Amino acid sequence: PGAHVLVAGPLGRALVGRLLDAGAAVTWLLRSHPDADAATAALTGRGALTVRCGDLRKLAGEYDAVIALDGVDRLASVDGGTPLSWADAVRTLVATARPGGSVVLGVPNPLGLHRLVAMAPRTTERADGDWLPSAGHDATAPAGLPALLTHVTMLGLRVGKVLLGYAAPSAPGVLISRFVARGPLALAGHLAPVVGAACETAYAGRPVLADPRRLAADALRAGAAGELAPLWVVVGTVDGPDEPGAPFRSVPDVIVADVEAAPEWDLPYEIVPDGPVGWARRLLP
């Protein structure tokens, strides 16, 4: 409560609504004027919300937390002039967080499970929501998870946790910490049903080259869930004084979506240890 949070990109009103209900003051950055108008109309009166429309470079101020789960590709705007490279966009985004503030950054994996099972090649699947041309290649964008972690560390971000999102990068049904994904819970196959359910939901009714459930389960058992995760979510802290009460200091290791009741990014429960060998669900506030 009382934190000033920047939400960057079209992440869904459910997430912004939860932040407002928790007492946060939210600034929501959207590049589309119709999206900004719709967001304002839908959430006016819900809490302390400011909707800004335009380019990332127009932001000013120091936020307690910055959330960009959809990455930085859709934060560019024609109003900003020359498009930012991936590295410049991330640097600009991180700079909006105050010293000691939290940053939650989502980065789609260019070699993720969603690419391996897609029927259409990447160059033909661009939709209205995609801003940058598919033929271009941004050499500053990380090609893998180690490169991503190196880059954000160089920007002064202390990485506290890395979450792996399955099975669609824009709306994952499960988030698993990198540590747990390489531990006994995953290697023994106990997370395979959860990830398989996320894959089944994401690809229901869609033709695929291979069964994503089987590929995801094999990746978990092989300790390669990080390499094939469609989405990487980095949760970190900008260099500065430590504040235990700051947002996103404590993030669950396994977060699962309620697919029947929840739209994108509405993830209401976590999986936690229960006894020496058991696991249980616990609702998130």
Produce the secondary structure layout.
Elements: E1 4-8, H1 13-21, E2 25-30, H2 33-43, E3 49-53, E4 63-68, H3 86-94, E5 97-108, H4 113-117, H5 145-154, E6 157-166, E7 174-177, H6 178-181, H7 184-187, H8 192-202, H9 212-221, H10 225-228, E8 231-238, E9 254-256, E10 269-274, E11 278-283
Parallel strand pairs: 1-2, 1-4, 2-3, 4-5
Antiparallel strand pairs: 5-8, 6-7, 6-8, 7-9, 9-10, 10-11
Helix pairs in contact: 8-9
What this model shows, in words?
Residues 261-265 have low confidence and may be disordered. A hairpin with a 3-residue loop joins β10 (269-274) and β11 (278-283). Helix content is 27%, strand content 25%. It has ten helices and eleven strands. α8 (192-202) packs antiparallel against α9. The protein has helices at residues 13-21, 33-43, 86-94, 113-117, 145-154, 178-181, 184-187, 192-202, 212-221, 225-228, and strands at 4-8, 25-30, 49-53, 63-68, 97-108, 157-166, 174-177, 231-238, 254-256, 269-274, 278-283. By secondary structure, the protein is α/β, with parallel strands linked by helices. The longest helix is centred in the N-terminal third of the chain and has 11 residues, at 33-43. The two termini are 13 Å apart. The radius of gyration is 18 Å and the shape is globular.
